[in-house]
Structure prediction request, 81 residues.
Amino acid sequence: MSANIYYRPVKSGRHSVGAMAPSSFIKSIEKALGRFPLTLVDSDIPVLQGMSATQSEEDNPYNDLIKGIEKYGEIEVFAEY
Prediction:
């Protein structure tokens, strides 16, 4: 089953994450950072940078999350089916 992956600043709306293989993305990020939904903060950026290094620069979902954290400070990551 396919899922859409989103993040939202803890205090406002949501933003889509460009995950080409949502189920693989969910498995990877849950293995590294915890079960969905999860809250990410500045201290999670090094893990996301490492995960980002495994992807191409184009359409990199981990970069989307890093940018969200840098902009908002704290984001919640979740999936909708």
Q: What stands out?
A: Residues 50 and 62 are 9 Å apart (CA to CA).
